[in-house]
Amino acid sequence: MPRLLWGLLPLATIDVVLFLVPMVIMALFSLRFSEELLGLTGRWTVAHYIKVFTSEGIYLHILVKTIVIALIATAACLLVGYPFAYFIASTSRRWQGVLLTLVIMPFWTSYLLRVYAWTAILGDRGLINEALHFLRITDQPLSFLLFNVFSEIVVFVYLYIPYAVLAIYASLEKMDRSLVLAAMDLGATPVQAFLRVVLPQTLPGVYASIVFVFIPILGEYVTPTLVGGMSGVLITNLLVNQIHALEFGFGAAIAFVIATFVLVLLLGLRRSVDLERLYVG
Amino acid sequence: MTDRHAVLQSLVEGVRGGRLTRREFFSACARLGIGLVAASSVLRTLGGGTASAAALQGPLNILVWDDHFDEPELKDFLATTGVKINTSLFDENADAYAKTKLVGGRQIDVVSGDALWGPRYHQSGLVDPLDLSQFESAKELFPVFREISFWKVGNRSIMFPWSWAPIIPYYDPRYVTPFNSYEALFDPKYRRRIVMEKTPVDIMAQMGLVTGAKKPYEMTPAEIKAAKEALIRLKPNILTFVEQSNQFVQYFVNGTAWIIANAHTGLDYRVKQAGGPLVKPVYPREGYVGFLDGEMVVKNAAHRNAAMAWLDHKNQAKYVVLNFQKQLRALANEKAMKMLQQDPKYADLVHATGYDQPDVALRMILKGPPPGEGLKMYIDAFNEAIAR
Prior knowledge:
Structural class of chain A: mainly alpha
Largest interface: A-B, 27 and 31 residues
Oligomer: heterodimer
Helix content of chain B: 40-55%
Distance between the termini of chain A: 25 Å
Number of strands of chain A: 0
Number of strands of chain B: 13
């Protein structure tokens, strides 16, 4: 037993130092007035939380909007990522290596550059508009392609789809394929075999995708800033403005509301599916 | 004084001839009562070598705007003093203020700031005022910038002045009818055609000007509310906010933006240089805000001597000239202005950017932090406007 405890010590230390302590500090900040910059002096208060849920409803409104956008982007990642992962898993080992390399290739480039690249693709003088103009399909650039929720979601899908593909692929790899063949032998159509055999077996991968895609999008700042325009403002944009105004207490309260939502989501997912199944054989 | 000068000369010769190391040079200067900045300044004339690293402790940590330095002076400083400079960039004064307040001189030696933020830094005990007479390069400043009243603390100055410019709208005349009031920005025909730098406090101040606030950085709650309503009204016309003003050029060049609502002067030339259209500046009749910025040395800076040497180094006319050629906006260094006036390529630009009219700098509505709870109210109003 002591040996096990020693073994767990590094992990526990990392958890405490990098997760628990910052969360406690953030909670303390959120419950104090910010007369002093560090927010740890002065009176206790829940005013920051009240402000999150009042303030003309803007923070709540933008939080809900952020969640909806994250949900749409996650759903798009799954819809595109699942067939792609399935395709990879069905190819030979050699091709799987090539295709997986292609999936992770975007990570070789800076995240910031990848987001910027989309302004060159979707912009008024971007690749799409120039192509449409060249083909005489349009005579004016389609300005709705960039600086709105649409472009934001497109970029989110592009940025996060590799996580979805990898998680689903890992799940497909572990799937017992003989069950699919058995289902087909017993008269199941391909759709039935997919819905009743493949999908249930790969649900842990789907849930893992949700965790890897949905949660980081909730905290996205760069993408809405660079391609979201005025309609693509998300909760982190408001949060950062508050931090710039030295409103650490209020900023912490907004962050804590998001963190609580994520925590509830994770607990819900954990109750729904055994995520460990994805990685433990 | 003459004796001291003679000794200094012999010390310089000693370093030149290799009889003295730079460490010995600095020690001797200290014994003579010659300040480190002055000694560094002398040493600068020698060029090369890194032996002074022991005398000037580094690395130097500067929290700075990206248009406040260029690679050549960083490289030269390293070559001359052996001190490496770590640069951290920021976009908002409040951001830099918060960082400085959080980590202080342990992690930041020099911080940039705008006009009225200087007194805020000083009142909060974050910076040490500078004796500008200690700096060789301060002699190259326009006299008006050596005597800025709101930066004065006794004989010292909170900041070493660097640059200034009005912040005004620019428009592309191919699409926009000439105008002289902020009201034109609200015209529905400019829907999604305006780009702005994301500076919430300054945007609120600008909206304050639109709605008639007399002191746009000290607005009353009612004035803030009116400014917020103006921003909400303007929102459909704003395509996006950019994080740094140097991003404006591309928006004009690729035709995405028809109006940039808060650029500093010189944008027309930068756009032209980049192959874009000849955009026009507007000096709105309601007035305009402007920036006058500089560098401050953080209190208890871990590398104070290097910080002082750096300020003296970077503010030399030769580097200021390079900076003007790149940024095309007015600076505080008079010697650099005169050098640029001699260059036919830049003589007109010097006048067009107001570089030869330094008195204009102090007639603008200068950027500063709203007092008391004001900052919070400005940001709340900004958030409420953009979140709708």
